[in-house]
Amino acid sequence: LQQYYFEDYLVRHIRKLQAGGKPIEIRGKNRLTSLEHHSDHTTLTIDTPDGPYRLKTDWLVACDGPRSTVRELLGLEFEGHVFEDNFLISDVIMTADFPTERWFWFDPPFNRGQSALLHKQPDDVWRIDFQLGWNIDREEVVRPDNVIPRVRAMLGPDTPFELEWVSVYTFQCRSMRSYRHGRILFAGDSAHQVSPFGARGANSGLQDAENLAWKLSLVINKLAPPDLLDSYDRERVPAARENILNSTRSTDFITPKTPLSRLFRDAVLDLAAHVPFARALINTGRLSVPAVYDNSPLNGADDDQLPAATRPGATLVDLPLPAQHGGWLSKRLGGRFQLVAINAPAVTARALTPGDLFHCLDVELISLTTEDAPLLRERYLAEADSAIYLFRPDQHIAARWTAFDPQAIDAALARASGQTSKTMEPAP
Known about the structure:
Elements: H1 3-19, E1 31-37, E2 42-47, E3 53-57, E4 60-62, H2 69-74, E5 79-93, E6 103-106, E7 115-121, E8 125-133, H3 138-141, H4 144-155, E9 162-175, E10 180-181, E11 184-186, E12 192-193, H5 201-220, H6 230-254, H7 259-272, H8 276-279, H9 329-332, E13 338-342, H10 349-352, H11 357-360, E14 364-368, H12 375-381, E15 387-391, E16 397-401, H13 406-416
Helix pairs in contact: 5-6
């Protein structure tokens, strides 16, 4: 999905929210020039064509990209690696009967000694990436009279195409040490950067937003203490490091930096044509998957009778549901705390919990059975007859049990929403 489509969908949704009365503004031609960071607020100085103005914020989320002005003004730095290889992006418009899948070449005849990538995008647009190496003339390589022969050599002389967009990029695998600095929080590329191999960049930024949004909402509405936001740091920094590790491994395989690395890579490619085990070693970018927050301070009770894939800290494992439940579990869950009872007797929320927290947080109780959704047994029960799962608003699992325990559920909900003094300590 091209970025301009994604941005258009976001703006359309914002306009819809605005029409419904949500206090959201998009301010164009506004540029941050300075900030004053205090213990209970941040004051920004914004420059516009009509002159500067000051803006006082209770909380500031810095989503201002890899060249973050907020990060620069605070004097904060990245830790990690900058890769020197240059890649040429050539988006071409063509009608082709290639399968809708991602193709990757190592040392192809049309780009000797380097790699190349082809994948389809909407509207008959195809993304072609050519590895160029280190020392290049950027202005020269993007000229159409240099790009078109490269593309034609790849596609063949009889395939008509039109250049839509051409650019050269390098990439980094870097992260800030911490994403929370008092009342300022960093998300997306302003907090971390990865190579494009594996679709980890935009996906991890969305996961940052999903993780932070519900916590910030609880804090702003005085339903949780500000310390809850420390868990954003405790969960998303390790997730970024995991992405950087996997992304760096892909990069090292695609663009080996030493003779030994190249020898290993080429040996794997040679073996893969003949020996099945070697095919699993080919690494052109392991596709992004959501991080499991195994060491999250918000994780509550667990029962090892239940499947490991749906343990506390993991995101939901999707499966089809009956139409009255939304068709898919992922569509049924999210946006609030939800308690899912599987093959468990129906219990009202009032009977379930003795405390007020269940009601203050507007927890929803959902009853499902394996008769309605057989995959629930494999993915959420294993050998157990029943299970109770507490889901967070971002669809991660907070705690789980094999039977109702009102006091344990209250304790897990308190921990997951930052209501206890031990919330910031890892669960045993």
